[in-house]
Amino acid sequence: MIAALRTVFEEVLRQPMPELTSETAFADLPGWDSVTHLALLLAVERHFNIAFTSAQMVNMKQVGEMVAALEGANG
């Protein structure tokens, strides 16, 4: 799942991403800011056909948290 997220991140941020781990903080990604954070969340929602809650969107700070939310959404 992290590989798929990396692809989405590269598309949204329009640049190669470093290797992502569950501990990777979004704030450490090249090109990240609050606007791209929202763009990343929306792109991930579209890619995985899910919807994050507003609490998830506000509190999600690391790749591992996103993976956990995606796994929870998919049962």
Q: Regarding CATH, which class? A: Mainly Alpha
Overall mean confidence score, pLDDT: 93
Query: What fraction of the residues are assigned to beta strands by DSSP?
Result: under 5%
**How far from one another are the termini?**
14 Å
Which bin fits the share of residues in helices? 55-70%
What CATH calls the topology is: Non-ribosomal Peptide Synthetase Peptidyl Carrier Protein, Chain A
CATH superfamily: ACP-like
Shape type: globular
Task: Write the element-wise H/E pattern from the N-terminal end onward.
Answer: HHHH
- The tally of beta strands, per DSSP, is 0
What gyration radius follows from the Cα positions, in whole Å? 11 Å
- Count of structural domains: 1
Show unreliable segments.
none
Structural class by SSE content: mainly alpha
Task: Note down, in words, how this protein is organized.
It is a single chain. This protein has four helices and no strands. It has 75 residues and is mainly α. The protein has one domain (2-73): ACP-like (Non-ribosomal Peptide Synthetase Peptidyl Carrier Protein, Chain A), CATH 1.10.1200.10. Helix 1 (2-13) crosses helix 2. The protein is globular, with a radius of gyration of 11 Å.
